[in-house]
């Protein structure tokens, strides 16, 4: 079991998901401490995982080697400023999973006076079932050991990858952060079409979900690219070819490009709004 003490500042869904993954991977639950003003939420985490809990953020961070900032973005400034006085006594590695909150703002709000090791992470919602995708960026002050510590925590929720520039997290937000919704929309549409073509609702739903799962697993486990996999299942003159011709003629590639680009642009806009420190 890991002997590292990890504090979760905020006990919402993301924190609960990471706690679940860490405990499942053998982390000592007594070395996980969650702080949140919602006592019933804390009681549920204690009952389910055996972690420690407190309503005091500063107390949670007191003996932590790593502090996960997992509050709502709108509370980021307030919470960071509340933690600032404690940094003279202890300086843990900070890992932020707060969507849209930039590293510079976190450092300013923590107000430590000197650069802090900080990793910013962009997870997506399947982290809640340990099947997520999380992308990380570290500040220059973060050591290789600390990068490994941060990755170990986020890997509890699924796949992890690193980017060299924080600005790339806007593209990550647009691709994998918002991405589950794109697939849900396609699945929703396929299910509706299946029903319209005469299938029972339950059959249409389960066939859609299993097909999406199977395609994703094939793509993950194969050395071939999605393009190669698509070409392999597209027989000349067959049903798949006809369907794909309709999608291509309807401009699916252009539409997806426009949609993801718009999400990327909006991610940058929201970051500027959320991290306005005036």
Key words describing this protein structure:
alpha/beta; single chain; 8 strands; 13% strand; 278 residues; elongated
What this model shows, in words?
The protein has 278 residues and is an alpha/beta fold. The chain is built from twelve helices and eight strands. The chain has an eight-stranded mixed β-sheet. Helix 5 (103-110) links the parallel strand 5 (93-96) and strand 6 (118-122). The longest helix is centred in the C-terminal third of the chain and has 23 residues, at 252-274. It is elongated. The chain starts with 5 loop residues before the first strand and ends with a helix. 32% of the residues are buried.
Task: Please write out the topology.
Elements: E1 6-9, H1 13-24, E2 32-35, H2 39-49, E3 52-54, H3 57-61, E4 66-69, H4 76-83, E5 93-96, H5 103-110, E6 118-122, E7 132-138, H6 144-155, E8 158-162, H7 168-177, H8 179-196, H9 201-221, H10 226-232, H11 239-249, H12 252-274
Parallel strand pairs: 1-2, 1-4, 2-3, 4-5, 5-6, 7-8
Antiparallel strand pairs: 6-7
Helix pairs in contact: 4-5, 7-12, 8-9
